[in-house]
Amino acid sequence: AAIDCYETALAYAKSREQFGRAIAGFQMVQEKLVWMVQEITKAQLLALRLTRMMEAGTARPEQISLAKRNNVWIALQCARSARDILGAVGITDRYSVIRHLMNLESVYTYEGTHDIHTLVVGQDITGINAFGG
């Protein structure tokens, strides 16, 4: 989802002209595109590392929580940035960005919300259960 949102935003930014030039040439659009590339790359590296740990049988549930927490959040932020770059057309079904954004909102909550995964990882690094009770 994050990669498709990035690729869609990049293609749109290169083709959409405003004030006589492509919006891809605007500083804030470039900042959003750079952020997406940076975060997608980090998310891919995290997923690769976790995959290798799973293959080796060394992955722990807390590491899976960390990856889910991070990578879903990154994908959601990429979808939001892409929607921003696309402007008003970003909320139409003409582009895939809004579909990804809606899907990611549900992914953000199932199999443990962002907050639940935060508590799982927090307990792992501190040794203190913050779930309550």
Structure report:
The N and C termini lie far apart (37 Å). This protein has a two-stranded antiparallel sheet. Strand 1 (17-18) and strand 2 form a beta hairpin. With 133 residues, it is mainly alpha-helical. The protein has five helices and two strands, in the order αββαααα. The protein has helices spanning 2-15, 27-56, 61-86, 97-107, 114-126; strands spanning 17-18, 21-22. It has a domain at 1-17 and 60-133: Butyryl-CoA Dehydrogenase, subunit A, domain 3 (Up-down Bundle). It is elongated. Helix 2 packs antiparallel against helix 3 and helix 3 (61-86) crosses helix 5 (114-126). The longest helix is centred in the first third of the chain and has 30 residues, at 27-56.
CATH homologous superfamily of the domain at 1-17 and 60-133 - what is it?
Butyryl-CoA Dehydrogenase, subunit A, domain 3
Q: Give the uncertain stretches in residue-range form.
A: none
Strand order of the largest sheet: 1-2
Query: How large is the count of helical segments?
Result: 5
Strand content: under 5%
SSE string, helices as H and strands as E: HEEHHHH
User: Roughly what is the average pLDDT, rounded to an integer?
Assistant: 96
The percentage helix is over 70%
The radius of gyration computed from the alpha-carbon positions, rounded to a whole number of angstroms, is 18 Å
Largest sheet: 2 strands, antiparallel
**Number of E-state strands:** 2
CATH architecture annotation name of the domain at 1-17 and 60-133: Up-down Bundle
> What is the top-level CATH class of the domain at 1-17 and 60-133?
Mainly Alpha
Predict the CATH topology of the domain at 1-17 and 60-133: Butyryl-CoA Dehydrogenase, subunit A, domain 3
